[in-house]
Design brief:
Rossmann fold, Succ_CoA_lig_flav_dom, single chain, seven-stranded mixed β-sheet
């Protein structure tokens, strides 16, 4: 277990050893140059037993030969020599080792073995291991550019950038500079053999300089550590913005269940991140701009965005972008409208987004009043001023400085966070920053889409983070069950015991009983064989639908004969279930399946037998409350169907949410033994809700799966 105290020691080194330093190594040259430029030359030592001088400096044959303690060692030697280098660094007092070398888990089984042994060695020596396959880190405010990357950031900001990819990290920190996103830290984690993204998040949540996180990852290692850190960040009001690679073909969790086909690795990640209050994005640009906005605004008190612009066209574009992003542009209150109208020309129209017209060119004071007034509206959580900014040195002096000054003054009086937004993506360089600083503008975003999308994400995060921070899974009693194949009758009793409504049925053992049951139901019936040994009954002719009462006795014999056929493999038979046919209504799938990293995950989907074709699914990790189940239903594309369309009866959504939550609770109670639990379809016809078919897949002691179907 990596502790915060160990990470503090790792990231606060006073002396450095470059093990494997070489004039031929780009890593070595960049790392040495960065440390020297930051004033660390006297405490930076070069280790190379085969060369007396490297980078124009004397070398030592080992870390121990340096003759003084070393805090942090950078290892740049072949993979087979890394373990000896770590031993040498530890003997010299190193508290941390950053392994830049490759040739570990990324190379195959031999590399994975070597990596496991390296972790065990590091733990034995009490050394924190970053990597392998890292470029190092930068603590900007502390002036520690301990990274083999050109042009490390020099001006401290409030966003910590963490990347599993070293090569991509260079592009990320460069774009951050172009977009005006200030970085507090840049950390590469590589293979995450010991120190994971979760450890770093947990450590930096307590860093006062860091107000948001931008994280690039290819996988979430040590999920429990990551989840705990995410909850701490949510509680602290520090957004985590994740760009996770790997949106690919869905991976089935259980070949026998529709739920498995719907719940893929990436969809589970989406659901888990949403539950943890983590913002997920798809591009480097969105990751950094969103993190920059979140660091500036913190959690918004209201999701409403107030927009002020001198361009009517920009207002139209913002309105379209906001609708597409799900951003809220609230109507301005009467008091706000009066304040704005007092300075607007007669031909202006007061609304949100607000076009203050060309009159503001003559009277910049309109900017100040409008920004201040819109920012003071009770439904506005953040105010945005859309205007141009210079980015070329030849634009000096900026003709629009007086407008920037007026906007800055309005932002100061707004009472809510404020963002300066340009219409197009442009560099936010040193000169641009001078103009903004002179006007008292703290944060700007280049480009309407980047800005509006980022604000929409931050508004959503602001609403969800409290739930994520306060989430504590309730204690659930474990059911005493035997994980053996269930008959249909057993599966029905399981559902009914959890308060899950099932279609009425009679368990019969003769043709006469079948006929009596069909007459009692008063219409066509469904007849299914009862056997714990037959999972796919339809394939064997053991399911008949739409059977009239006069045919029920004969069909009973036919179904039983199909169950005794050689194709059934000598299955044990226990009669037939007879239930009334159902027509109309809406069919849903409600299922729970097990994810290898995150445990049981619940899926709600529309479509019944067409569920995989329609692919309209919402996911969440357990547990699931009725309120969360209702939110899942409302998030489906087909949610309007639940409200009744073209004469259809509206569903009892409240009761449906309770049933879905009950399925989640039942799954949680079965957790030690459950692989998946699926109801498909769960039929909804107005207030009537019934499970028509169910499948249980158990985890057995030997790892095999056994099924039980209603």
């Amino acid at each position: 277990m990596v502790t915060s105290a160990q990470l503090r020691a790792f990231f606060e080194p006073r002396s450095f050893a470059l093990v494997g330093a070489s004039d031929k190594s780009t890593f070595s040259r960049l790392l040495y140059r960065n440390l020297v430029a930051a004033g660390h030359e006297p405490s930076t030592f070069l280790v190379n037993p085969r060369s007396d001088r490297v980078h124009g400096r004397r070398t030592r044959p080992s870390c121990v030969a340096i003759g003084r303690p070393v805090d942090l060692a950078f290892v740049m030697v072949p993979a087979t020599a890394v373990a000896d280098a770590v031993r040498d660094a530890a003997a010299a007092g190193a508290r941390g080792v950053a392994v830049l070398s490759s040739g570990f888990a990324e190379t195959g089984e031999e590399g994975r073995r070597r990596q496991r042994e390296l972790v065990l060695l590091s733990e034995e020596l009490g050394v924190v291991l970053l990597g392998p396959n890292v470029l190092g880190f930068v603590d900007v405010a502390a002036g520690i550019p301990a990274m083999a990357l050109a042009g490390p950031p020099g001006s401290a900001g409030n966003v910590a950038l963490i990347s599993q990819s070293g090569a991509s990290c260079g592009a990320m920190k460069d774009f951050a500079a172009l977009a005006g996103v200030g970085l507090s830290h840049v950390i590469t984690v590589g293979n995450e053999a010991m120190v994971t993204v979760g450890h770093l998040l947990d450590h930096l949540v307590d860093d006062e300089r860091t107000r948001a996180f931008a994280v690039f990852m290819e996988a979430i290692r040590e999920p429990e550590v990551f989840a705990a850190a995410a909850r701490r960040a949510a509680a602290a009001g520090k957004a985590i913005v994740v760009l996770k690679a790997g949106r690919s073909e869905l991976a089935a969790k259980a070949a026998t269940a529709h739920t498995g086909a719907l719940v893929g690795d990436d969809r589970v990640v989406d659901a888990v991140l949403a539950r943890l209050g983590v913002i997920r994005v798809d591009t480097i640009e969105d990751m950094l701009v969103t993190a920059g906005v979140a660091a500036h605004t913190g959690p918004l008190a209201s999701p409403g965005i107030g927009v002020v612009s001198i361009s009517g066209g920009a207002c139209d574009l913002v309105a379209d972008l906001a609708q597409a992003a799900g951003a809220v542009l609230p109507e301005l209150s009467g008091a706000t409208a009066e304040r704005v109208a007092a300075v607007m020309p007669s031909y202006g129209h007061v609304q949100n987004p607000l076009d203050i017209t060309g009159a503001a060119v003559i009277d910049p004071g309109i900017w100040e009043t409008a920004v201040s007034a819109v920012g003071g509206d009770p439904d506005v959580g953040v105010v945005v001023a859309v205007n141009s900014l210079p980015w070329r040195e030849e634009d000096r002096p900026f003709y629009g400085q007086k407008y920037v000054d007026a906007i800055g003054a309005g932002m100061a009086g707004a009472g809510v966070p404020a963002i300066y937004l340009t219409q197009v993506t442009q560099p936010m360089g040193a000169y641009t920053r001078e103009v903004l600083d002179a006007g008292g503008v703290a944060h700007a975003v280049p480009g309407l889409r980047l800005g509006i999308d980022a604000l929409a994400r931050v508004a959503g995060w602001s609403r969800s983070r409290a739930t994520a921070a306060d989430f504590t899974p309730p204690a659930v009693p474990v059911r005493d069950v035997r994980p053996v194949p269930y008959s249909e009758a057993d599966a029905r009793r399981l559902l009914e015991s959890a308060g899950i409504p099932v279609v009425p049925a009679r368990h019969v053992h003769s043709g006469g009983e079948a006929a009596e049951a069909a007459r009692a139901f008063g219409g066509p019936v469904a007849m299914k064989i009862v056997s714990a040994d037959i999972a796919h009954k339809s394939d064997l002719g053991c399911v008949r639908l739409g059977v009239p009462a006069e045919r029920a006795a004969a069909v009973y014999e036919e179904v039983m004969a199909a169950g005794r056929a050689p194709a059934a493999g000598g299955a044990r038979l226990d009669g037939v279930l007879v239930s009334p046919m159902r027509e109309g209504g809406l069919e849903l799938l409600v299922g729970v399946t097990r994810d290898a990293d995150w445990g049981l995950v619940l899926a709600v989907a529309l479509g019944g037998v067409l569920v995989e074709v329609l692919d309209d699914v919402a996911l969440t990790p357990l547990p699931v409350s009725p309120a969360r189940a209702r939110a899942m239903l409302e998030s489906l594309r087909g949610a309007p169907l639940l409200r009744g369309v073209r004469g259809g009866s509206p569903a009892g959504v409240g009761r449906l949410a309770e049933v879905i939550a009950a399925v989640g609770t039942l799954a949680a109670e079965l957790e030690p033994h459950l692989e998946s639990l699926e109801i498909n379809p769960l039929r909804v016809d107005g207030p009537r809700i019934e499970a028509l078919d169910a499948l249980v897949v158990w985890r057995t002691a030997d790892g095999r799966a056994t099924e039980g179907r209603q």
